[in-house]
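README: folding subset

This subset contains proteins for which both the sequence and a predicted structure token string are available. Records are stored as plain text. Below is the entry for Acetyltransferase (212 residues), shown exactly as it appears on disk.
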Amino acid sequence: MPTRRKVVVIGAGGHAKVVIDMLKSDPTVDLAGCTTKAPGTEVSGIPILGDDSVLQCLYEEGVRHAFVAIGDNRLREKLCRQTAEAGFEFVNAISPRAFIAESATLGSGIAVMAGAVIQADTHIGDYAIINTNASVDHECRIGTACHIAPGSTLSGNVTVGTGTLLGTGTKVIDGIRIGQWSVVGAGAAVVRDIPDHCTAVGVPARVVKQRS
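--- output ---
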């Protein structure tokens, strides 16, 4: 029998509900509960333990693993750093209905939803989300705290920088580089490189906002 790990889920919104369902299917995970500032007693059948101030007590009680189930990339990355500094290790939430190639490399604290495909020699960075029915083809590099939204399709050898969001249904041709902390709008078709810290939309995608 695999060793079971007690896990606290940080967050209790819609994204957390999907993550909790996936973690329930993992025979190595024993869900201790979740943290949130919102009122209530439970989320998706697991107890709400309080806000994030309870994490230290949980650690002292022997809960040593966590999953940060927050959809916002910047907030997720920040909370992951804080949770790691508090001593927690991260588990991955991977749907049994996802396909992940044997040669793919996965970071920690990542979510891979139902219907997602991760092909050969792809690297998925820590805290990334590969959402429902997203497809990441061979030799892609997905950076830390990225979100590849539902139905997005990435051809081979695509690089996506740290913290970037590819909106629902984004299409990216092979060999493209998308910079860090950028946003590509839903339904965009990316046929040329996208710089850091910008928003790009349309078919083909063009930069409509550049942030410093």
